[in-house]
Amino acid sequence: MKSDTKKTKEDGSEQIDRLQRRAWLNSKGLKPNSQFQLDMFDIVSDRDDLRHIPNDYARSSLFTVRNKREPRKTLMHEKLCHYNEFVSILYTGIELRAEDDEIVWLQILGYGQSVAFGEPFEFFVKDLVRDVNWSKSGRNYERARECITRLKANEVLALNTKAYGKSAAISLIHNYSAVNDNDGKITKFRVWIDPALMVMFAGNTFTSHNWEIYRKLSPIARRLADYIESHKHPFPLSLERFRQMCGSTNTSTRGWRRNVKNACAEIQESKIADLAFITKDDKICFVREHTLPAPQKS
Questions:
Q1: Count of CB atoms within 10 A of residue 19's CB?
Q2: Could you read off the pLDDT of 74-102 as tens digits, one per residue?
Q3: Which residues make Cβ contacts (< 8 Å) with residue 29, sequence separation at least 6?
Q4: Contacts of 146 (CB under 8 A, 6+ apart)
Q5: Whole-number Å distance between alpha carbons of 255 and 238
Q6: Which residues lie across from 285 on neighbouring strands?
Q7: In the structure, what pLDDT confidence band is assigned to residue 5 with cuts at 50, 70 and 90?
Q8: DSSP 8-class letter at 218
């Protein structure tokens, strides 16, 4: 009897979550049961120079900056660090990193930019390696394949109490099929993106990066760019809070400060911010007098 009551409560909670998601999408002028394209969210489809990431992912430790010699962790319903207290993200799967998984995922989303969510699209491994700015080599081809495996073998559940409520639990890549060469190596992927990801993009709740600039940044600078460009006016960020948002295990304050100082120099040189610096009380501050040019409305 108790188990039946518990199941009823769970079913009721899931129904409320589903209704809240539908209400969120409807409030943004989107019909939950229709097909969606990434370029429908005020993204200009002919701007191939941009790549896009949901704000709630950009401001979290979903993609870490841990040392490449440090083994990746396997997580089970791990609550990730997020800049905003009203956002919670639970992650299950192999740890994802900014140095490779993040840029591979953004580039894959770029390939699917003109395809409706849930519909398949294709790309070659060699093109993916080129488009994330890696050198052409067998090791980097294998590295790209490994990224795609990790991006599929995970579950991300986000809760934003000020927006969509609870998102559906999704994998960053919903599914894929592949074509192999004579040696059994995958040369071409057909990929599906979960339609539930549209909740994370609805209502301009995403960040657009200049791809030519972003993909050349170091992992820490890339995470700093995620924070800066996901805010119209980014507030000062404490050094320790940023370390948590990066999922860094660097316990040396001096070493972490040095790493972030170098990342600030990259951010400033790349013109993502006019000024980026660390204050004496360990606050990362930004002066940003320009923003990404708005897409032209037709």
A1: 11
A2: 999 999 999 999 999 999 999 999 999 99
A3: none
A4: none
A5: 15
A6: 277
A7: low
A8: -
- Interval 251-269 mean pLDDT: 96
Residue 133: both structure tokens together = 């700015």
Decide: 108 and 128 in contact? Cβ < 8 Å: yes
The three-state DSSP-derived secondary structure of 116-176 is ECCCCEEEEHHHHHHHCCCCCCHHHHHHHHHHHHHHHCEEEEEEECCCCEECCCECCCCEE
Give the pLDDT score at 37.
Answer: 52
For residue 233, give the DSSP letter.
Answer: S
Under the banding of pLDDT at 50, 70 and 90, the label for residue 41 is very low
Name the DSSP letter for residue 26: H
The rounded distance, in Å, linking the Cα atoms of 43 and 37 is 10
Is residue 204 scored above 80 in pLDDT? Answer: no
Which residue's entry shows tokens 């404490």? 238
User: Which residues partner with 192 through β-bridges?
Assistant: 175
Q: Could you tell me which residues are beta bridge partners of residue 175?
A: 192
The alpha-helical segments, DSSP class H, found in the chain are 2-27, 55-58, 103-111, 125-131, 138-152, 198-201, 211-214, 219-229, 239-245, 253-269
The number of residues in the chain equals: 298
Per-residue model confidence (pLDDT) at position 167: 80
- The neighbouring-strand residues paired with 37 are 116
Q: What is the pTM of this model?
A: 0.85
pLDDT for 30: 57
pLDDT at position 291 over 60: no
Mean pLDDT of 194-209: 84
Query: Are 239 and 284 contacting, i.e. CB atoms less than 8 angstroms apart?
Result: yes
Residue whose C-alpha is closest to residue 91's, from 104, 82, 100: 82
